[in-house]
Amino acid sequence: MTPREVIDKYYEYANAGDWDAWCDLFTEGMVMDEQIAGHIEGRETLRRMMRGMRTTYPKFQNVPQHILTSGDEGAVVSHISAASAAGVPIEAGVMNYFRFEGGQIAYMANFHDTRPFEPDPGAVTPARGPTESPQPLARRSSVTIGTGLSDAAITAFAREWFDKLSRHVPVEELLPLLSNVGPRMQFPERTITNREGFRAWYAEVGDAYSQQSHDIERLEVRRSSTATEVDVVVVWNATRRADLTSLLMRATQTWTIGNTGPRGAPVIIEYIVKTLENIA
C-alpha cells in the first residue's frame, strides 16, 4: 500500500474498532511515541496494549481533517470524539506523524492534550499556560519495553504492589501503578480490561476478605526485544468474611511491565494469574 492508503486504513480500522487489523498496519519492529501510553516498541506489545481499547473507550471516533504525505513520511491533523467506560465524553484535537517502510508504519508519534483522557474523575492534569509548548518526545514519560527498567526497580515495584494489596489501601493509591491504556488483568474469576473493572474487582475483594497478606516466594524478570515480563510466585493469606475461614493459597502470575509512571516508574500493562492453589 502507498503511505496515503495506509493512513486511510489506519483511521478506517480505528473508527471500526478493528484493533487487530489496525495493529497489522505496523511493522513487526515498529516504534511509537504515544502521548498517553509513552514509548512502545514491537507490534505484539502494541497489540497486547490495544486489547482493552474497546472497553476503555466504548465510543471512539478519530476523524482526519488534514492529511499530508511526502515520500515515506506523513502527517495528519484529526479530531477525536470518544467516551470513557464511565460515559464521560472526550473531545480532543490530535496531530500524528508517520514514517513508513515497505507499505507499513515503522514509526508513529502523536501529540494532543492529555487532560480529556484523564481516567480518574478525581484526578486533575495540570493545564499548560498559554505560552507553554508541549514537551518534546525525549522529555515525555516513555515505555522502553525490554529495556530501561532495572531488576531492582521491578522488584521494588512488585513489593509495593503487594504491600498495597495486603493493606487494602484506597484504590486511588493503586491506579497509578496501572497502565493508562487498559490494563488487561486476568484473575481466576474474571478478566478485566480497564481501570473501572479493576475498581469493581478491588472493592469486591475488600468486601469478601480481611487480614490479607501477600508474600513473594519467587520473582524473575524476563526481557526480550518487545517486552519486559515478570514471573511471580506469591503466597496469599486471608480471612473470608462470610464464615471467618482462613485461606492460604499460592499464585503464579506473569506481568508485562512498562514505564509510563511518573519519571519513568513501572506500570502494569498486563497481569495474568496463571494458577491459584490451596496450600493450607
Question: What does this 3D model show about the protein?
Answer:
- The protein has 280 residues and is of the alpha+beta class.
- It has two domains: 3-139, Nuclear Transport Factor 2, Chain: A (Roll); 151-278, Roll (Nuclear Transport Factor 2, Chain: A), CATH 3.10.450.
- The protein is 22% helix and 42% strand.
- It has helices at residues 3-16, 19-23, 43-50, 53-56, 151-167, 195-208; strands at residues 26-34, 38-41, 59-70, 73-83, 89-101, 104-112, 184-186, 191-192, 209-223, 228-240, 245-258, 267-278.
- Strands 2-1-6-5-4-3 form a six-stranded mixed sheet, covered by helices on one side.
- It is elongated, with a radius of gyration of 20 Å.
- The N and C termini lie far apart (59 Å).
CATH topology of the largest domain: Nuclear Transport Factor 2, Chain: A
What is the 3D shape?
elongated
| Neighbour order of strands in the largest sheet | 2-1-6-5-4-3
Instruction: Output the number of helix runs.
Output: 6
Q: Regions with pLDDT < 50 over 5+ consecutive residues? A: 120-147
Order of H and E elements: HHEEHHEEEEHEEHEEEE
In total, the number of domains comes to 2
What number is the mean pLDDT?
A: 83
Give the structural class.
alpha+beta
Strand proportion: 35-45%
Rg from C-alpha positions?
20 Å
Do you know the CATH architecture of the largest domain?
Roll
Distance between the termini: 59 Å
Instruction: Count every beta strand, where a strand is a DSSP E run of 2 or more residues.
Output: 12
CATH class of the largest domain: Alpha Beta
Report on the biggest sheet.
6 strands, mixed
Helix content: 10-25%
